[in-house]
Amino acid sequence: MSGSVVQRILAALLVLGPVTIAAEHAGAGDITVFILAAAALIPLAWLIGEATEHAARHTGPGIGGFLNATFGNAPELIIALFAVNDGLFDVVRASLVGSVVGNLLLVLGFSLYAGGRGWLDRPSSLTSLGLVALATLLFLIPYVPGQDGDPNRHALAVLSIIPAVILLAVYLVVVTISLRRHHQMNVAEEPAKHRGGWSLTTSLAVLGVATVVTALVAEALVGSIQTFADSVGLSEFFVAAVIVAIVGNAAEHGGAVVVAARGQLKLAAEIALSSSAQVAVFLIPAVALLSWLLQPLSLAFRPVEMAALAFGVVYTSVLLWGGRSSRRRGVLLVAAYVGVAIAFYAAGDRSSG
Questions:
Q1: 39-50 burial, b if ≥16 CB within 10 A, otherwise e?
Q2: How much is the pTM?
């Protein structure tokens, strides 16, 4: 099947987004909504990948990856705030940690496997990994006292403000420097590569619309996912850390793999690593601070969550230290994610773990 045929099929399947939203509001069963939503996220992820690739022709791979990570993480923010409003604090923390680890290991792993041998933007990759490492260290501030007593107590939520504010400040500084660097690199490149394809305005408009629909579909899926999980006996923690995290990262999963398969390894790595860094130093702090408008959220993560974060950043850093990509590295990253997912499954819910 040719690429153009696949694209036409995916474009036709975009109708599943509105169908899923309509089905949810019409009161369809949770299993039906779950299946529709899961299917709808596939063409939406492709569309975001397409729009990002076209935007990258005008902005360069660095800013293109940043755009994809920004739009791709919007559903996660919406999902997290809905869960905070419902008092599902363990679900929020687990899904956010699962998102960071999923991007570092699963999304990046599939991208490297799809792209094969090549070179990555080593400075940018190590910067993203450094940000995740910094976030992991700062999360120790509420983590240590959170091991005794109620992890959701008000004092821990107050203590969580410290790492949240620091990480947001660091994120703004690093993003400013990174965007300037990528802009300078892009200006130096040959302008011929910008010819053809969508305009930057069209690309950004499509990204915006696709992100909104993706958020609505992801919300519908999360609203029905517990029924599906209960039917197969999964813990709420595993559902949040693995299933919800994968759903929230559908845009990065599809977009990164699509562009990697087309030989754009730098862009694919930027998508996965930038998204992981954004969740760690922007999305998690933002959710923690915005939660005060609803119900204060503490960042008192579980030991298995902190271990997964530390392992993910160290393991990925070792594999990418030389700035090279290969299918073998991709397989090793995916295998590591499977190991982390098994650990999440074995951990169970906090009350029973």
A1: ebbbbbbbbbbb
A2: 0.78
